[in-house]
């Protein structure tokens, strides 16, 4: 690939002259023609990303993610990238590997790299986060978590949790287990559980619900599910993520429990793989790519000084498949 130095040498001008020409500065007509001929002959294209880094105001949006091996993260990133390209912005991705200290460091690092704004796919928001946002003084948008002092785009986790809980309760299940994660993750660990709890509380006269906790790991979920099957023997297990539901399916198979005849199982997320399982998984479908589009629109508007809602919600839908059975004996 040709560089500015190469173009300058071939055109017989200074490197600074080529740079001035590329940035729309003052260059004589004769010099301009020389540079244009060389650019046309070589097919040279300036590195927009590098140009942006050198500029006082960049068109780069820093995007901080908690992990790379996540369907939700990858789909959200796809949506962000698609829309940012349409808006003539670039995405710079920084992975934290679920390390909060590294996450805070990345906020400061991206600010030093003169990004125009930051999208943070957050798992939690701490005082250290809030201090960092104040210190860097550039637009920040949270995705997946919310805070009253920060622009936020969240999945409607509590309403979705209520919807899946009500769906299961209305199908006659008397003993329902909820398998979630720790409350450090407010969206997944708290709001989804609270929505589910509200739904089953409306059927408190004939439904017993118990709450169990694990990590985001499928293998940990499978191990915990094996225990809850022994401890509680539920007719349905509602899971806070699709990965947890896959772990529960594995545990049910190991316990020789038929799904959905012996136990019904639901997920949360709408991952593509859930349609390929046998039985296919009933789940809450979250529009991750669409949320990415919205996140890109919002951060660019914030960069431009335009108004955006302080709190926005992405859409969800119940995806009804084969993993949930109706307990007809209870309904009769």
Automatic annotation (TrEMBL):
Q: One Pfam match, by short name?
A: LacI
| Residues annotated as domain HTH lacI-type | 2-55
Which InterPro entries does the protein's record reference?
HTH_LacI, LacI/GalR-like_sensor, Lambda_DNA-bd_dom_sf, Peripla_BP_I
Q: What is this protein called?
A: LacI family transcriptional regulator
Keyword list (alphabetical) reads: DNA-binding, Transcription, Transcription regulation
Against PANTHER family, the record matches this protein to: LACI-RELATED TRANSCRIPTIONAL REPRESSOR, TRANSCRIPTION REGULATOR, MEMBER OF GALR FAMILY
**Highest taxon of the source?**
Bacteria
Looking up Gene3D superfamilies in the UniProt record yields: 3.40.50.2300, lambda repressor-like DNA-binding domains (1.10.260.40)
Q: Which GO terms describe its molecular function?
A: DNA-binding transcription factor activity; transcription cis-regulatory region binding
């Amino acid at each position: 690939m040709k560089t500015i130095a190469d173009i300058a040498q071939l055109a017989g001008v200074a490197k600074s002259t080529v740079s001035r020409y590329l940035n729309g500065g003052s260059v004589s007509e004769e010099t301009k023609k020389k540079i244009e001929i060389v650019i046309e002959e070589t097919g040279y294209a300036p590195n927009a990303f590098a140009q942006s880094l050198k500029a006082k105001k960049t068109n780069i949006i820093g995007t901080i993610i908690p992990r790379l091996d996540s369907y939700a993260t990858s789909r959200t990133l796809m949506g962000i990238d698609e829309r940012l390209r349409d808006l003539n912005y670039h995405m710079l991705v920084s992975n934290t590997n679920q390390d909060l200290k590294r996450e805070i460091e990345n906020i400061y690092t991206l600010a030093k790299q003169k990004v125009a704004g930051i999208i943070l796919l957050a798992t939690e928001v701490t005082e250290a986060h809030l201090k960092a946002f104040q210190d860097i003084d550039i637009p920040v948008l949270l995705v997946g978590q919310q805070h009253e002092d920060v622009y936020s785009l969240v999945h409607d986790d509590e309403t979705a949790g209520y919807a899946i809980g009500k769906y299961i309760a209305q199908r006659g299940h008397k003993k329902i287990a909820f398998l979630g994660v720790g409350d450090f993750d407010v969206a997944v660990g708290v709001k989804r559980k609270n929505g589910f709890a509200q739904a089953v509380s409306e059927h408190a006269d004939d439904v017993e619900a118990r709450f169990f906790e694990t990590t985001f790991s499928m293998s940990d979920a499978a191990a915990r599910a094996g225990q809850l099957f022994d401890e509680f023997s539920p007719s349905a297990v509602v899971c806070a993520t699709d990965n947890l539901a896959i772990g529960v399916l594995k545990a049910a198979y190991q316990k020789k429990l038929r799904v959905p005849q012996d136990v019904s199982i639901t997920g949360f997320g709408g991952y593509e793989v859930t349609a390929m399982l046998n039985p296919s998984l009933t789940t809450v479908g979250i529009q991750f790519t669409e949320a990415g589009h919205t996140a890109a629109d919002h951060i660019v508007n914030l960069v431009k000084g335009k108004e955006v809602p302080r709190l926005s919600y992405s859409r969800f839908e119940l995806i009804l498949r084969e993993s949930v059975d109706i307990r007809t004996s209870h309904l009769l």
